[in-house]
Structures are given as structure tokens and as C-alpha cells.
Amino acid sequence: MISARLHLLLYLLIALTLSSCITTGKQHRTGLRLHRTIIKVDDKNISKDDLTGFLRQKPNKRFLGLFSFKVWIYESNQPRKHDTKLKKWMRERMGEAPVITDSSLTTGDALQMYKHLYNKGYFNAKVKANIDTLRRKRANIIFNIKAQQPYHIRNIAYEIHDSLISKLVLGDKSNSLINSGDQLDIYAMGNERDRITRMLKNTGYYMFSKEFLNIKIDSTLNNHQADIKIIIRGANGTGDERLTHKQFRIRNFNIFPYYDNYNTSLSSQDTVFSMNRKELSPSQQLHQYRFIQEGPLRIKPQAIINALLINGGDLYNLDLTTQSFGRLSDIAIYRYVSIDYKLVKTPLGKDSTAQLDCNVQLMRNLAQSYSLEFEGTNNGGRLGIGGNVNYKNLNIFRGGETFYIKLNGAAEMQQSVGQSQTKFLFFNTFESGIESGITFPKLMLPYSHRMFTGNNKPKTTIQTGFHMQNRPDYQRYITNLSLNYEWRPSAHITHNLAPLDLNSVRIINPSTDFTTYLNSLDPRFRTQYSDHFIMALRYTFLYNTQQGTKAGDFIYFRASAESSGNTLNALHSILNEPKDAEGYRTLFNIKYAQYARTDFDFRYYSYASIKKAWVLRTAVGIGIPYGNSKALPFEKAFFVGGANDMRGWMLRSLGPGSYFNPTNRFDKSGDLQLEGNIEYRFPVYDFINGAVFTDAGNVWLLNPNKDFAGGEITSQFMKQIAVDAGFGIRFDFGFFVLRIDGAIPLRYPYLRGDQYWANPLRTSLKNIVWNFAIGYPFQ
User: Fold this and answer.
1) What is the pTM (predicted TM-score) of this model?
2) In the predicted structure, residue 424 carries a pLDDT above the cut 70
């Protein structure tokens, strides 16, 4: 009771102190501080977020929406009798001036809102702004909007003076952004104007611009309808002006593979390579590719030509030019890419087309680089140190290939089953290894890359590595080799195919205590600490509609399928290879895994504003061991718990099913995963953001297991769904995000007494599971 009174007294003293400081600061205020801006609209189809974008006066940021700390600092350090350097520093560096209401700005904002509504088809809208005075020298600005009935499009007509352009535009009407019956929207008409212009530029009209295209609106029908006429006027005059309505074909290419922005003179540069290519059309006209630079050519010409989706004799195409720019930018040796065109002063061709020469300017990066990296590690509270030595070559075979090699080493303190002796300082576990890989900017396939046109950005990556781990209980050697293809048929779709993914694990010199302990484990855990080999085939499909860093709704969907051991098992069956003493087939005396695995990850991001968003996620996965395997390899199993999924449980500590044994300290895994997450993200103050979330899910085994009672999937699996809820604080520094999430279990997958649900009112701080991570979850 006495403690509660002391806390109440302390709270009152702090409140009185802040109140006196704030009151003192307000005495120096010359106007009304803006407390809140309120927009009231009578039409739910009008976005308040769009209208908010026209506000030039916005309230100062408040911590949790309650208190503006920066304004308090600013007003508390106003000069009274005299100013000081400390007060000035506090005002300018730590404080923020209060936003004072300005009636002229308010009137201007109301006018901009009216113009916006007019552009959205609300021709009779009314916008009224009021300043509502509050106590303590504050005020609210209230915008009352009466939208009235919007106008809709009745008919759309075209008036196009050029016959070929008319044929192209009318033939592309199915892609139009405006249609009869739509609400009149001048913004959409502007987008349609841009769309038609881009379509023409993709069909050869290099010099065409949207200034030739006008859209007229006739709203005099007196029934809230309007007729639209799209007008493309003809070219007037002579010379270059008449070319605005002519199609252009590409004649020759001038490629500068070692472009120097500070030396644009061509007098010191030579044509170091030149080739001619025949046009694919019946005329088979020759088109020249000239590589111009000073000194020897340091990249294979075909590497650049393969990246170009435009060819001699083709009609000019803006989109293919843009995609060629992206493909050239993906060649790591180049840090600057420019593609431009120069008009060729020749008579028009037989098909009335003009000609362009294409100039490709490429500025190089340094081909080779070296780096040293050092890091501290924290693996479940076990501290360690590590370091890497890296070498990278961005043009190893002079075809834009990226090659890297990395040497790494680490030392850590690990728990052991038997007696452990510190070998160096306080570390008893050491790791060293080498990794190497090469990425080709194309698909290394026995057929032409032209099968993959458009925005594909194809890549072929080959990686290999070897790692040695010296631990108190055993030594482990890990070898891997993979071949991976990646291509993008569109801006939103990515395919990833790994026809070969080899992983080999060898355990040598296990201690007696460790061997005894290992024999008592379930097979799924023994594979982590015993010899095994994985030869997998994997395919991943990714669909992502996110538009860069823009805060718009988008969908993320990933589907992955993987199998292992089928080829080896078929060969061994054909060759009638014998099994080992335990009944397994082996390769180089190592048991190989055989399984099929698939998983899906769906996410939906819904943004109310740039920092306010709902995130919904569903993850489903299943793995089936068969043939040469009784359990999934440990690294291929499913886990939940930790910073990125079931945040009310520690990392890999939940499941499988209703299994619960607090003395089992090993990671919990399953053959099947089902999980859902909902998270609401919102701003707190400046670079600090918050989130509230709930997670639901679990993992299960496909078959009963005596070591994990209740872990198998049954028709009662819904009773074994775990649920948690929590809150998070995210410090967004721009270049990285530091995240702290705290969550409590709300529903356990097993009975606690006679019920599954927890009582949140009885939760204490010690029940909160804290997760620290870098970056946002599900992103």
C-alpha cells in the first residue's frame, strides 16, 4: 500500500513538473499550435489519405500520440532575459518548433482538395475549412467536404489524323485505362495518355510525345455524364518535326565498353572490334556493332550483345531499351550504363521508316577487390568470434562473370555431453572453411538465350564449399556443391531451379559419452550428428507485386518443391547394389537421404499510409521421407518458434503436436507445418515504429513416435494449434532496422491442468518471450 502511494506521488510530481514547463513555454507562443487536422467526407469512396497529401500544415509528432517531446524541449529553452549557447543548441538540435495554424495555408489546402475532387469527377464538390480553437493555445483544423454526385463516362470517341497510328491505337483499345461507364477521372485520363504514348514508342515512334495527344471532355449533358474524345493531331511542318509521326528502325550500334565520363573525345579511341549481323527480315540487311575504346578490349563482345534485347533492323522499342538497360546493369563489372539513340540523316526507307544509331556507354568498376570481416556471435547465449577473408573478381572470364572465394574461421564456447576442456582462451569449439562461387549473367544451357526474352535477367550460379568443425564431442566435415538457374519472365515473377544441390556431412572421432547419448536420440536428430548425404533437386516460384519502396498494397507468394535421393536409389536398384548392415543404401559409405518436400508462403500487405500497414501471412509445408530414409534430414525439417514466426515461444521450442517435455533441450521439429500471422504496424515517434501481432500454428509428425508422444498429425490437430500475441518496437535507421518483439502464449498445444488457454491477466514480465532481430518479420 505504501509502495503504491509512493508511485502515485512520484507520478504526480513528474506530471506537475512537465505541466509547468509546458505552460512556461506556451507563454512565448505567438499563435495557436496545430493540435489535429480532421477531414470529414460524406462519400466513403473518397480516400482521406489522398486528401491528406495536400496538407501543408501537419501537427508535430507526438510520442504514442500523447506528448510532443521535441516541442517541449523547444519551448522550454526559449530565451527569456538572455539566450545561452546551451539553450540555442537544445532548440536547434534537440527541439522542434510548434506548428502554428495559418488561415491562408488552410484556405490554400482547401482549394487543392477541391481541385483534386474535381479531377476525380466530383465537379460540384464543396470544401469548407474551419479553425476550431481549443484551450492551452491550441487549435484543430477541420475540413468538411460535401462531394455531391460524381460524373461518369458515357461515350469515348477517337480523332486520329495519321492512318497507321489510328490503326495501332484502335487495335490496342482492350488495354485502355478508361472505359464507358467508369467514373470520370482526369488522373486516369492522364495515365491513358501516357499509356498510348508508350505503346507508340514501343512500335517504333521514337520522336512521338504526349503533347500530340489531347483528351477533351464534354460535360454539358446535364445528367452527370460526360463524353470523351481522344485526339491525336498530325505532324506539321518539315524537317525533324515531320518525323514525330514516323516509325524508326535501328541501323548500327556504337558500344563503348570502357567509357570515361571525363574523356568524351573519340579521337583517342579506336574501333577495337567490329561485327556485322544480318537482319532477320527478308531483306537481310547488314547491321554493324562497333566496340570503341582506347586500348585492348577487356570483355567479350558477345557478353554485351547477349544482354541487348534490341537488334539491328528492329523497330525502336522503349520497353526493350529499358530492359536492355537493366540486363547490362546486372553485369557486375559495370557501375554506369547509358543507352541513347542518334538520328541518322538519310532518306526514309521503303516502308517510310527513319533510322537510328544506338549508342551504348558502359563505365567499369574495379575488376578485383579484397576485404576482411570480423564479427561477434551469440548463439543461444554462447558467445564467439569470427572472421572472413574475401576475394572477388567481377570479370573472371571476361564475360561479366562474378567469382568469389571466402576463407572463414570462428571460435565459440559450446556445451558438451561429456567433460569439456577449454582449448584457447575460453573457447572450446573452432570452425574453419572455404567457400567459392561463380555467377554467369546468362543461363548456361545448350540452347540459345533468346528463348528467355523480356525482363528475364537470367543468372547461372555454381557454388561449392568445405567446412571443418572441431567441437568438444566430435569433429564434423561439411561439403556442398550446387548449380542454380534464375530467370524473371516478368517484373513480378521469378523462377529458381537448382537441378543439383549436394550436401555431405561426415562425423569423425565422436567421444564415448556423445556416442552413447546419440544412440538414445530419435533418427531425425541423429542425422544432424551422423554421416549423411543429400542430392536434391529444387524448384522455387516467386510472385511479388511490390513496387520498389512505395507504400502500396502488394502480394508476396513463394512456392517451393524439392526431392532427394530418387536418382541414386534408381541407379542402385538397377545395379542391384547391396545395403549396409542397417538396411540402408550408401554412396561412398555415406547413407543418402530420400524424401519429397514442398512449402508455401503467402503474404498480403495492406497499407493505410506509408508507415501504417496490416500484414497477413500463411505458411504451409510438408516433407515426406521414404525409401532410404525414415525421417527427414534435420536441416530439411520444419521448425516454429523464434523471432520470425511463433514469437511467444523460444527458437525451435514448439511442438511437434501436443508434445511437451521441458527436459528435452534439443530443437523441436516436424514433417508438417501450418502457421498464420497477423501484424499491424504503426509509427510511434520519428524513426521509432511499433507493432501489435498474433501468431497461430504448430508443426507435426506424419507418423507416431514414442519419443514424441502426441506429436503426430490427427483429425484433432486443430486442438493442437498454439496461439500467441504481443507487441514490438522497431528502430528504423533507414539502412537497417533493429527489432524487439515481446510476446506471450495465449493458447498452448497441450493441456495445462484442464485447459489449453492461458489467462493473460495473470501474465507477468517473466512470461514474456523477448526476440531481438535485424529487419522486419516476413520481409
Assistant:
1) 0.79
2) no
State pLDDT tens for residues 650-673: 888 898 999 988 777 667 889 999
Give the dihedral sign, CA 66/72/73/74. positive
Q: Kind of pairing, strands 672-685 and 688-700?
A: antiparallel
Rounded CA-CA distance 752/288 in Å is: 79
Look at strands 248-256 and 354-364 and give their pairing: parallel
Residue of 615, 603, 761 lying closest to 681 (CA atoms): 615
| CATH number, span 17-59+99-146 | 3.10.20.310
Give one DSSP letter per residue of 155-200, joined into a string.
Answer: EEEEEESSHHHHHHHHHTGGG-S--TTSBP-HHHHHHHHHHHHHHH
Mean pLDDT of the chain: 85
Least confident range from 171-185, 315-329, 330-344, 402-416: namely 402-416
Domain ranges for the chain: 17-59+99-146, 152-244, 247-364
152-244 and 17-59+99-146 share a CATH fold: yes
Radius of gyration of the chain (CA): 34
Residue spans of alpha helices (H) in 418-533: 512-519, 523-526
The 10 Å Cβ neighbour count of residue 171 is 10
Place of cell 485505362: 177
- CA quadruple 663, 667, 670, 673: dihedral sign: positive
| Predicted confidence (pLDDT) per residue in 476-527, tens digit | 899 999 999 999 888 899 999 999 999 998 888 888 877 777 777 666 667 6
3-class SS of residue 21: helix
The candidate with the shortest Cα–Cα distance to 30, out of 109, 121, 118, 137, is 137
DSSP SS3 for 16? helix
Query: Other CB atoms closer than 10 Å to residue 508's CB: what's the count?
Result: 9
DSSP state of 92: I
Q: Which CATH architecture has domain 152-244?
A: Roll (3.10)
The DSSP-derived string for 578-617 is: PP-TTS--EETTEEBP-EEEEEEEEEEEEESSSS-EEEEE
DSSP state of 93: I
The predicted pLDDT at position 77 comes to 81
Residue 92: C-alpha distances to residues 71, 132, 528, 666 (Å): 11, 30, 58, 54
Q: Is the pLDDT of residue 63 over 50?
A: yes
* Helix (H), strand (E) at residue 693: strand 688-700
Amino acid at 369: S
Instruction: Note the pLDDT tens digit of each residue in 245-281.
Output: 899 999 999 999 988 765 555 445 566 667 776 665 5
Q: Which of 465, 467, 468, 377 is nearest to 414 (CA)?
A: 377
pLDDT tens-digit profile of 614-625?
999 999 999 999
C-alpha to C-alpha distance for 657 and 672, rounded to whole angstroms: 10
Helix (H) or strand (E) holding 248: strand 248-256
Determine the topology of domain 247-364 in CATH: Ubiquitin-like (UB roll) (3.10.20)
Asked if 235 and 161 count as a contact pair (C-beta separation under 8 A), the reply is no
From the CB of residue 343, how many other CB atoms can be counted at a distance below 10 Å?
14
Plot region of 85 (φ>0 → left; ψ -120 to 50 → alpha; else → beta): alpha
Q: What letter does residue 268 receive in the DSSP assignment?
A: T
Beta bridge partners of 481: 464, 502
**Residue 29: partners with Cβ closer than 8 Å, 6 or more residues away:** 75, 98, 100, 137
